[in-house]
Amino acid sequence: MKNYYIIDFDSTFTQVEALDELARISLENHPDKDAIYKKIENFTNLAMEGKISFREALTGRVKLLNANKSHLNKLVSRLKKSVSRSFERNKEFFKENQDTAWIVSGGFKEFITPVVTPYHIKKENIYANTFKFDGEGNIIGYDDTNPLSDEGGKVKLLKELKIDGRIYGIGDGYSDFQLKESGLIEKFFAFTENISRQSVTEKADHITPSFDEFLYVNDLPRAISYPKNRILCLLVGDVPEIAAHILKRDGFSIRIKDTFEEKYTKDVGMLLLADGVKLNDEQLARADKLKTIGVLGDSKETIDRKICTEKGVVIFDDKKLKKRNAEFIPRRMADFINNGDTDMSRNFPNLTLPRLTKAHRLLHIHENVPGIMAQINNVYAENGINIISQFLMTKGNLGYAVTDVHVAYDKKMLKELKQIDNTIKFRILYK
């Protein structure tokens, strides 16, 4: 059986609720705009939480819009810049699944179609409402014969379509959960990258903080090897708010603490330390998932660099205490996780890599001993791997080998690379 992916639009494919954004455009010069915005947002939230019927909310919002076709053009431009980041980076998934990746929304085709079609989603696979216009292009209502304009509209639509396959639903609202409740879909994934509604998440089969997470748990092709929402990023001490904002926006799971609490030791993937925060050697030695540490100060005074190097943990620090480094250090950490860059690291060979395109990047951190590169490349040769590019740098007893390969290979090769003597850490990046 084929897998079908039924994806919501508002606050799922895009970061925003489109009708709320349309109101901000159409009512920009209205004297009571703030009060009307609030009414529209209230309709949206009540419907998404299942507290009023979808039709009641839709009718109420459309009446308040005071919009026309010229406003729709501005809205489309804004929505194209507001596509959810995890959907944006997984464009290739939609290209490969364009027959079975569908948009099903209570929104409107007039703004949905131009936003999603650049992602290889076919027009015939976009199911949404349509506006009614008067002779001057003003929005005066919507087609109320469309099942998606009614309460339980997504359920009614899928019953009409009679899809022969396994259906997975992805969305943030109550109307998306109704698909699961109806028994029409295999699983419902509550999408929380932009907003989390408890009334929806508590009923979901799985909470997916990003589209990467959905693809990962279903073992589907994706842009990155491991969902960034699963990488715990711990900020310790008086870390500036901008640093947390940068890392959270990039998709990492953020915790802000006064001290490095023991309960986080086995799970932390990234650490950002405020100036003067010292790290316990014994705790550091047991942090086996830790990949990178940023220090808003001189790392020499706060962490044992030798332990970090032996564990393959990349350090970025700020010994000159420049104000801009509250932004610069988190970005360096993110660049290492996202692209493998070690530029300006304190303990690793400094390497700035080209952006990865249509390949897998394999990062092999090892002790710099004679013959290890021969062993690495022998594994590639024995597995018939076509190497696109390869980078190697060393620093003292540490070696950092980065190999970009074509995506077709047996996964046993990854195990072989990890088992090479003197390997410290091994990681994959997909693109």
Question: What would a concise description of this structure say?
Answer:
By secondary structure, the chain is α/β, with parallel strands linked by helices. The chain is built from 18 helices and 17 strands.
Number of helices: 18
Supply Rg. Answer: 25 Å
Strand order in the sheet with the most strands: 3-2-1-6-7-8
CATH superfamily of the largest domain: HAD superfamily/HAD-like
Strand pairing plus helix content: what structural class?
alpha/beta
Structural domain tally: 3
Reported CATH architecture of the largest domain: 3-Layer(aba) Sandwich
Compute the number of strand runs: 17
Shape from CA axes? globular
What CATH calls the topology of the largest domain is Rossmann fold
**Separation, N- and C-terminal Cα atoms:** 28 Å
- Contiguous uncertain segments of 5+ residues: none
What profile does the largest beta sheet have? 6 strands, parallel
Under CATH at level 1, the class of the largest domain stands as: Alpha Beta
Beta-strand residue percentage: 15-25%
Mean pLDDT: 95
Fraction in helix: 25-40%
Task: Provide key terms for this protein.
Rossmann fold; Alpha-Beta Plaits; five-stranded parallel sheet; 18 helices; 36% helix
Polypeptide structure, described:
By secondary structure, the chain is an alpha/beta fold. The protein folds into three domains: 2-217, 3-Layer(aba) Sandwich (Rossmann fold); 228-339, 3-Layer(aba) Sandwich (Rossmann fold); 360-430, Alpha-Beta Plaits. 36% of the residues lie in helices and 23% in strands. The chain has helices at residues 9-13, 18-26, 33-48, 54-65, 69-80, 85-88, 91-96, 109-116, 153-161, 174-182, 198-201, 211-217, 241-249, 281-285, 305-310, 325-339, 372-382, 412-418; strands at 2-7, 101-108, 126-129, 131-133, 139-142, 165-171, 187-191, 206-208, 232-236, 253-257, 268-273, 292-295, 314-317, 360-367, 387-395, 398-405, 423-430. The strands form four sheets. It has a six-stranded parallel sheet with strand order 3-2-1-6-7-8, with helices on both faces. Helix 5 runs parallel beside helix 8 (109-116). The radius of gyration is 25 Å and the shape is globular. 39% of the residues are buried.
